TrEMBL record:
It comes from the Eukaryota. The lineage of its organism: Eukaryota, Fungi, Dikarya, Ascomycota, Pezizomycotina. Transmembrane segments: none annotated. InterPro entries: Homeodomain-like_sf, SANT/Myb. It comes from Claviceps arundinis. This is Myb-like domain-containing protein.
Amino acid sequence: MSSQEVRGSLPVQARRPWTVEESNLLFDSKGSNKEWVEISNSLPGRNPRACQSQYHQLMSLWGGGDEGKNELALLYDRHKEDMWSPIAAEMVATWGEVESMHWQLGKAEMEKRGLDDSFRTTPVSRVNLRVPPQATQQQGGSNPRSKWTGEEETFLFACKEDGGGMSWKEIGDLMPGHDASACRSYYLVQTASGTEWPQERKNELCKLYESHKQRMWTPIGNAVRIPSQFPCPWKVAERLHWRLGEKGMTERVSAFGLAPSDEDNDEVHPHSDEEPDQSPHHLQYPQHQTEPAPMAHVGQLGPSMTLPSCAELKAGVDLLFGPPQ
């Protein structure tokens, strides 16, 4: 048989490996809820069945195996300072502040605020605002679970914090789509996610993350090659970090005793004439300086340590969770 097989009307390369670019395009297309036929049309040489098979295979690899999750958690823990420092520099904050806030907001809020331009990044005085158009169209009662637009949120916070002590009833009367109870509930939920940050600052973080996340997660995805030699698409790596959550990521790092100590974090690594380590655990991110303190790590990223091999990781799991000898 030739190097090509013909299935139906589409020529398909026999056993041609999937590239990282193809996999990222596959996940982009699937995330847009496209049909497999439409997805395959954007991937020359791939039929719908091959696209579906590759998608589910990768989701099974990265969504179901502990090895890949452990590897991602370790890489993120080691390189999160360099991942978040460019955003912190633009916001004049520390990388730890912005990284912590992204966990507090969560995936849904980060996406909503990052993609919806109605969520402002600059404060507006109450006197310069009008009742949001969408609110005026929601006559006929309030739904406590109804979605809030950026304009409605801005109006709510302006009334509460710049409204001269307006009551919840007075605020609710100005927003026919949301009564006093709904306004109070939404306000308390939003302030609980980080009272030290105004809404506009949270919105700025979300929008910056949307523009930076491919840069942040591509090196991590390319380095995660457990349990296969195929690099993890950056979108899968980013999605998996949300699925594990802050607690899950921390637990996986601590389980293997690889969390850097405070002393390691404060260490300044001098420049060296030696060639930089090009292993997957030493990712090369551009160096950025943030205020109020400069980055401690220069040159080689993270504490000077060598992570265990795949075989050693597996042996550690067997030792921790295997039956007693």
